[in-house]
Every structure is written in structure tokens, then in C-alpha cells.
Amino acid sequence: MAVLESGPRGGGRGGSASHSRAWLWLTVPITVLVVAAAGGELLFDVFRGDSPYLIAQAVGQDLVTLLVALPALVVGAALAYRGSDRARLVWLGVLVYLVYTYVIYAFHIRFNPLFLVYVALLGFSLYALIGGLATTDFEGIKARYARERPAKAAGTFLLAVSVLFYFVWLGEVIPALFSGNVPQSIADNGTPTNGVHVLDMAWILPSLAITGVWLRRKRAVAYALAGALLTFLPLLALAIVVMVFAMALYGQAASVAPAAIFGLLAVASSWMLVRYMRGMKAG
Asked: Transmembrane ranges (predicted)?
């Protein structure tokens, strides 16, 4: 937790410190809902009618959400409440992960007893993310960067990840469009579309690219967005690695290649996150 030490209490952009901290209180209902959703799915048979392939992935995702993302969210909120800008960026990054995760759960998991929990989690996480960003002091965060090299490196990294995964996903989608078939991942999941393709190509990958460009151009908002996205990436990559192992345990076809690729991404993005946070002046 060395990179999350408390910093000065700065007010949010266009608001007071109390307004900036107010959104952190949404961490409380989000925590309760995550425990109910992820814990309930792991303990009870709620995935009724979903494909075994999708169920195995959900189990792996729930483990990472409960054991890694949730503690990071709670610790990040607690330290951000004390004034740490670094912790605030981590908190925002975990919220990106939760919004991403529960969009997929709300739309792709078949209706089950936890449906309203998924909807509530999506709502609380989305508004906490919007409110948290709206009250973040972007200029203050930029001013705390004493070293530009970590920021430039982070910008290049985010751009590279965006381009790489556009090639990967389009390489799966475009041949399927020309052949008149559906991508294998959709057939395996038993869903109408692949939610990962949608969220990545419509939201996450453009965000990575825009943030990377803005960071290299030293735009204030990018310094906060980069910290959040660099927190999101290792969480998502770790979840995919655990999903692959869960699929193998559940007797589903699982390739070592995705686990290796996303394992490398988890390590690289974690290292980049630590380096990026250390580039900020300690308050």
C-alpha cells in the first residue's frame, strides 16, 4: 500500500472537499451488494439455464471481484476519504471494473434471483464513477506529477493496449461477419452477442486510446483517467486468467494461450500502475 499513502485534502473540481468525499460513501452499499452478488453466486445455484461455459467464467470472475476488487475498493475509498489522490484513482479504477462487470451480468446472465442486485450494483457503481470523476481535482492531480517520464510511458502503454485489442477482437468479428457465422465465443457462451466485444470496442478501448493521447499532450483530465484505467486493466486481466482456470476445473475447453496473454497483461499493467503512482508527489 506504499503507493496509496494519504495526500493533502484537496477539494473536488468545482466543489469543496466535502462534495468530493460524499461520493465515496456509495462504497458502503456497493460493498454490501458485491458480497450479496458474488457471494451468493459462489454459494448458491443461481445460474439457471446459462451455458456451463458461461457459468465457469462467472465463477472465476466472482472470485476476483470478491477477493481482489472489493478489498481494493474499500481500502481505496477509506484512504481517499483521508485525502489520498492516489487512492482516489484506484477507487475510480475499481468502479470502472464493477460497471464493466455488471453491465455484462445485467444483460447476459439469464434472469435469476439476483437480477435486482445486478441492476442495483450497476446503478450505484455507475453513479459513483460519474460523481467521483465530476468532483476530482484534475488540475491538482496533474500538478502533483514531478516526473513526466512515467506519465508518458503510461500514455504509450494505454495506446498500445488499445490498438492490440482492437486487432484481436476485430480479427474474431470480421471473419465471422463475412462467413455469415457467429464468433465461437458467442456460440460457447450461448448469448446473443459477446458483451466483452461490445464494451471493449465501444467504451474501454477508445477510452484507453484517448487517455493515452491526452496524457502525452499533458491534458489535466488524462492524469486522473490514466490512474483509473491502469487500475482497471490488471483487475480485468486477472479475472480472465482466473476464468480460464475455472473453465478447466469445470471441464470446459480452456486454452493456455489466453491465460498466458492476460497474465502478462496483468503483470505489465500492475507494474505500470505502480510506476505511474510513484510519479506523483507524496503529500
From this structure: 22-43, 63-82, 89-109, 115-136, 157-178, 198-215, 222-250, 256-274
